[in-house]
Amino acid sequence: MSRVIVWVLVTLDGYFEGEKKWDLDHHGEAWGEELHALSMSFGQSAAALVFGRVTYEGMKRTGPAPMPPTNPK
Predict the structure, then answer these.
(1) Which candidate, 9, 16, 44, places its Cα nearest to that of 30?
(2) Are 51 and 59 contacting, i.e. CB atoms less than 8 angstroms apart?
(3) Helices in the chain by DSSP H: which ranges?
(4) pLDDT for position 42
(5) Residues 25, 21: Cα–Cα separation, whole Å
(6) Long-range residue pairs from 63-69, CB within 8 A, at least 24 positions apart, any chain
(7) pLDDT tens per residue across all 73 residues of the chain
(8) Residue extents of the structural domains in the chain
(9) What pLDDT, on a 0 to 100 scale, did the predictor assign at position 70?
(10) Distance (Å, rounded) from C-alpha 6 to C-alpha 19?
(11) Which of 8, 22, 39, 64 suits a disulfide with 58, CB 3.0-4.6 Å?
């Protein structure tokens, strides 16, 4: 059976973004090596990534994400 993992950064008072749409500056305060590694592990082991419409549209505007290096087996 598959699992659903919800992963999101929010402030302690429940905000995902700043006052303007798609203002994610505060995410940089929490981001570091540990969260980067967690994010990469989710991306490498997930069968699919599912985004809501607003998140998908915001990510689409930022351009394609670089693909992580693959480990040949």
Answers:
(1) 9
(2) yes
(3) 27-30, 33-45, 53-61
(4) 82
(5) 11
(6) 68/40, 68/43, 68/44
(7) 677 878 788 888 888 888 888 788 888 888 889 988 988 888 788 888 788 887 788 777 776 665 655 655 5
(8) 1-73
(9) 61
(10) 23
(11) 22
